[in-house]
Amino acid sequence: MKTGELMKIALDLAGLENEPYDTTISVEGENIQKILIGVDMETPELLLAKELGFDLVVSHHPKADGSIVDFHKVMDIQIDKMVEFGVPINKAQKALAKKTKSVEINSHVSNYSRASSAAKLLDIPYMNIHMPADLIGERFTQKYLNAKLGDNAKTTLQDILDALNELDLYSKSLSKPVVRCGANTDYAGKIAVLFAGGTNGGADVYKAYYEAGVGTIVAMHAPEDVIKEVREQNIGNIVVAGHMPSDSIGLNVIISAWEEKGMKVTKISGIL
Length: 272
Known about the structure:
Number of strands: 9
Number of domains: 2
């Protein structure tokens, strides 16, 4: 298969027509049969793949070219997600603006060709798939928690932890689901699963969700400054599901689809 065909499978599974800004093919390839995929794949993994005879290296996280420089542009999808949960669109845009600008500033100074230039020298196809996998994981987890916990007004944060830990990816992970804001016995209220959108939207985004009626945000990860501010706001809870197991949900769906097409896929670097 060609890299473009493999990418289209991932996009179709996520319901996307085009490659998001955080997802790109840095080095095209064809006649691909053996794929090495991981959450973070850079020059060391490219060298490993070349040594072991793989035809393609796939990173989940953006590591090269436009997926780094234009990464901030993908964050606008968070506006749609906030609106879905009742945040007015103008408020959603303003809540996200501060974090988007910060990400743009940091991305602009990055060494964006470090990994892709190595892939070109090694003559090995190289691509990354970020948003598609995150969307698949987010939708699955939201649907799962909705079905598992229903409309029980007295669902607690511990109930969320228990539900997540019934999934093999979470129960087998070294970094298990944890409450970062709130107490295990606190009522969860309305639950919003936020896995997609590039990166964490920041404390202003979380506050917008809480003010719109969300009680608990389930995230892959949350930085310490956001946790601190949410605790000070004292209006909502944060459950961190775990980065690697959460990333693995969508990635495994994509991997299974590739395997159905005859690809031999080897998982490393964080994929459970």
